[in-house]
């Protein structure tokens, strides 16, 4: 069962408390898992048990997503705010310099945690921040359309669609290469998470100016992995990531989409374990 922890953070209006929800399993070196925009910690469910056999795995709902609180009023959903919140979250758990892996927005946050040297290693799956302006506009437009569809569909319709492979494809084919493999329950849950994501628009607004440009890969081990069937952040962005981070290991995920954990759990788990050694 997921847990919840309350801790203090710095905000533009002083110190405030916030609460994040997380799932923790396994034993070994700590591995923090960060999901993408509009998702929740359950995005990692397909790989959690495999990872937990070798790691102390902590999958967290980011601020304003899943069951976690939104940021206090007046706090922007940008890197300079969210990264310290994640640092404070780890401190509250008594976890010092975990390995970190992230997908999409979570991949960008993982890289920023690495740049700040707050983690032992970074594995980024299709991380945001290596786009051209046209690619960013395309991705953000697609995300807004997904959110709009999730908000417009009545819950009984979402539940009915999720019961068939064609319906699951209609709901999730933008992020999964093999959407029919996702369970009906998971599709309903993540569609509701997308519609309920209080931090969605503020996160997109903060992301308009984001480009990851700084190389830190000589001081922290970095793995960047990209699905060959990523329809949201196209795989050529992985080549750019390697140019920015020449010391990083670039891994191809054949047949995987933007959220690869469900498309090929065994391969993704292996990449995460190799990247967190």
From TrEMBL:
Q: Is-annotated flag, keyword Hydrolase?
A: yes
Any GO molecular function: hydrolase activity
Know the name of this protein? Answer: Alpha/beta fold hydrolase
Q: Which organism is it from?
A: Streptomyces bikiniensis
SUPFAM superfamilies on file:
alpha/beta-Hydrolases (SSF53474)
Looking up PANTHER family in the UniProt record yields: ALPHA/BETA-HYDROLASES SUPERFAMILY PROTEIN, LIPASE-RELATED
Pfam families annotated for this entry?
Answer: Abhydrolase_1 (PF00561)
Tell me the ranges covered by the AB hydrolase-1 domain, including all copies.
Answer: 30-261
Report the InterPro entries cross-referenced here. AB_hydrolase_1, AB_hydrolase_fold
Q: Which Gene3D superfamilies match?
A: alpha/beta hydrolase
Q: What keywords does the record list, in alphabetical order?
A: Hydrolase
Kindly indicate whether the keyword DNA damage belongs to this entry.
no
């Amino acid at each position: 069962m997921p847990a919840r922890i309350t801790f203090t953070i710095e905000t533009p209006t002083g110190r405030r408390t916030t609460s994040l929800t997380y799932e923790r399993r396994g034993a070994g070196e700590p591995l923090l898992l960060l999901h993408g925009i509009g998702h929740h910690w359950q995005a990692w469910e397909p790989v959690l048990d495999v990872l937990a056999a070798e790691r102390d795995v902590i999958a967290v709902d980011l601020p304003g997503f899943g069951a976690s609180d939104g940021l206090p009023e007046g706090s922007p959903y940008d890197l300079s705010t969210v990264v310290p919140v994640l640092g404070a979250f780890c401190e509250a758990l008594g976890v010092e310099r975990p390995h970190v892996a992230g997908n999409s927005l979570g991949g960008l946050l993982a890289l920023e945690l690495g740049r700040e040297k707050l983690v032992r290693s970074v594995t980024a799956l299709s991380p945001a921040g290596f786009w051209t302006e046209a690619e960013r506009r395309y991705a953000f437009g697609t995300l807004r359309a997904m959110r709009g569809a999730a908000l417009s569909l009545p819950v009984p319709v979402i539940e009915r669609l999720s019961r068939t492979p064609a319906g699951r494809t209609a709901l999730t084919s933008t992020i999964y290469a093999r959407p029919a493999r996702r369970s009906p329950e998971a599709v309903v849950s993540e569609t509701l998470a997308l519609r309920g994501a209080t931090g969605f628009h503020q996160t997109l607004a903060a992301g308009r100016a984001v480009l990851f440009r700084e190389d830190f890969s000589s001081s922290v081990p970095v793995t960047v992995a990209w699905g060959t069937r990523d329809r949201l952040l196209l795989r050529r962005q992985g080549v750019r990531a390697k140019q920015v981070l020449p010391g990083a290991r670039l891994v191809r995920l054949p047949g995987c989409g933007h959220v690869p954990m469900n498309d090929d759990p065994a391969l993704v788990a292996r990449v995460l374990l190799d990247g967190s050694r």
